[in-house]
């Protein structure tokens, strides 16, 4: 009986030791590294002797310290799930040997610094430069339009005179020359109707709008001057002689 009890206790102690040894067994990890911007796949292996005291975050800092310093995201993926940094290797169900996929992302761009508010003087100078540039651009555009209009008018006038002269002598030309003359006349008429006349109408519209703005600006500038003159005349009339002098000056008495 004693021998049987001794054997039972020895077997129990042996099983307990085996369980403890199995819980403390080291782990061999094989990493398949996928890095952003790199075409080749990296492989790395590591033997962890103490799975109980090792976390996922400590492994990241040990193996991929450079990527973490560059603020790149490092993720351990096992069985389709991402391992948290605070997780202990013993609790991840890795076994004695495991394959872990490592995903290293691109570096995060630095945060842009807020731009300093521009000073009022600089803003005024920029506004003045932009206004001067806009006026110079408008003047250059107007001169360009005027030059183009003159060249177009000269082209249509010269070609029209030549075509008219040739058309009067069409009976003296050969059949091929007369056909060519008809083709040139058709092209000239097409250019005049589809390109020349629209430009003329557009320029006329621009001229009318500019004339209207000039007239409205002149009326607006003359109105304050007339009001000032009438007010000055009324004041002089009141100071000099009252309503009679005001009537003589043509100013309504107040």
UniProtKB/TrEMBL annotation:
The keyword Transmembrane helix applies. Residues 27-109 form the Ubiquitin-like domain. The lineage of its organism: Eukaryota, Sar, Alveolata, Dinophyceae, Gonyaulacales. Gene3D superfamilies: Phosphatidylinositol 3-kinase Catalytic Subunit, Chain A, domain 1. Signal peptide: none annotated. Residues 1-21, 105-137 are annotated as: Disordered. The keyword Hydrolase does not apply. The chain crosses the membrane at residues 144-167, 179-201. Keywords: Membrane, Transmembrane, Transmembrane helix. This is Ubiquitin-like domain-containing protein. It comes from Alexandrium monilatum. Residues 116-137 have a biased composition (Low complexity). Residues 1-12 have a biased composition (Polar residues).
């Amino acid at each position: 009986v004693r021998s049987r009890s001794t054997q039972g206790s020895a077997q129990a102690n042996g099983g307990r030791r085996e369980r403890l040894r199995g819980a403390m067994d080291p782990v061999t990890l094989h990493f398949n590294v996928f890095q952003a911007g790199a075409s080749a796949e990296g492989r790395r292996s590591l033997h962890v002797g103490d799975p109980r005291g090792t976390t996922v975050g400590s492994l990241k800092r040990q193996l991929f310290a450079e990527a973490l310093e560059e603020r790149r995201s490092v993720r351990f993926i096992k069985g389709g799930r991402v391992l948290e940094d605070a997780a202990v290797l013993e609790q991840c169900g890795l076994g004695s040997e495991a394959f872990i996929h490592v995903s290293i992302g691109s570096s995060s761009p630095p945060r842009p610094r807020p731009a300093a508010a521009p000073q009022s003087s600089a803003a005024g100078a920029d506004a003045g430069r932009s206004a001067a540039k806009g006026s110079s651009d408008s003047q250059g555009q107007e001169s360009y339009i005027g030059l183009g209009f003159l060249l177009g008018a000269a082209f249509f006038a010269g070609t029209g005179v030549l075509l008219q002269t040739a058309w009067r002598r069409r009976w003296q030309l050969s059949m091929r020359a007369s056909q060519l003359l008809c083709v040139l006349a058709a092209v000239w008429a097409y250019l005049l109707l589809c390109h020349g006349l629209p430009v003329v109408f557009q320029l006329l519209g621009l001229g009318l709008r500019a004339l209207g703005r000039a007239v409205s600006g002149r009326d607006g500038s003359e109105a304050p001057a007339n009001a000032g003159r009438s007010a000055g005349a009324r004041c002089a009339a009141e100071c000099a002689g009252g309503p009679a002098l005001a009537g003589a000056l043509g100013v309504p008495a107040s």
